[in-house]
Amino acid sequence: MSWTEAQYAQYRKDGYLMVRGLLSSADLQALHAALPDLLSGDDAADGLHREREKSGAVRQVYLAHRHSPPFQALVRRPEILEPVRALTGNDVYVWHSKINVKDAFEGGVWLWHQDYGYWMWDGVDPKLISCMVLLDRATLNNGCLTVVAGSHRWGRQEHYADTVTTSYKQWCVDVPTLKARVNEEDIRPVTGEPGDVLFFDCNLLHGSNHNMSPLPRKTFIVCYNDVANPPRPVEDPRPDWVVARNFEPVRGKATPPIRA
Ligand SMILES: O=C(O)CCC(=O)C(=O)O
Q: Based on the structure, what is the number of domains in the chain?
């Protein structure tokens, strides 16, 4: 499933592109079969890393792409890797991956931010691309991702650390900057069905609302970095679960569907 020239042009203009139906129902079944263990396990026992909501509900699970066979296969999917390689112009490695959970009525807000707003402090250039795989339906009510089309062309904006809104420290753009920059008509909710995949630039401004619905909204986000862009030494390097030290290029394997 190669992208057309028009799709590449759209991605470059908007900073994101949604590819519908990239995964089959068999792929989704295998991924969903792995989820209960990934969501309920114990970090010390299984080597994953979990962040929780203030309520204690799991908010994020990092490292599924290293420990869970269907997620290992997912990050190697040629339909994902091929456009990512074309966009970076090089081989890529996995910077990190996370299952963002957003349980029914419990999953919390993500404030407006650019991923590169904080990744810059990890000592890399803005050559990273994220792919958000919808594992559940994403709707306006359950807190689908919302993006500002074209915002990647602003370049990186200053970010500050919000430590009060959720249990999780969120790097975000301040309100005066948002008021100066964001036009209402450029705000796009990214709704979709399980198996749709959103590709987006590391400088794309995005966020999402609290899950106000009875539907869970699970997504898997894998972020790829150009192999020529490993982190330079920084004063306070973040741990490997969020800034990978394994720079091995990810190679596609033409073995779909994903098997559990
Ligand atoms: O899951 C979401 O809705 C947003 C996640 C996000 O922005 C992030 O992980 O950086």
A: 1
AA letter at 39:
L
Which tens digits make up the pLDDT trace of 29-49? Answer: 999 999 999 999 899 899 999
The residue whose CB lies within 8 Å of the most ligand 1 atoms, and thus the one to mutate among 221, 242, 243, is 221
* Distance (Å, whole) CA 169 – CA 118: 11
Q: Which of 88, 132, 118 minimizes the C-alpha distance to 229?
A: 88
pLDDT recorded at residue 56 = 87
Give, as one character, the DSSP assignment of residue 27: H
The answer to whether residue 258 scores a pLDDT higher than 60 is no
Residue 131 sits in a domain of what CATH number? 2.60.120.620
> With pLDDT > 70 as the criterion, what percentage of the chain qualifies?
96
Section 123-135 average pLDDT: 98
The pick from 112, 128, 145 for probing ligand 1's pocket by mutation, whose C-beta has the most ligand atoms within 8 angstroms, reads: 145
Which residue's C-alpha comes closest to atom 10 of ligand 1? 115
Instruction: Flag whether 250 is in a domain.
Output: no
- 78-88 and 5-14 helices, crossing angle to 10°: 60
Q: Which residues constitute the domain of residue 77?
A: 5-226
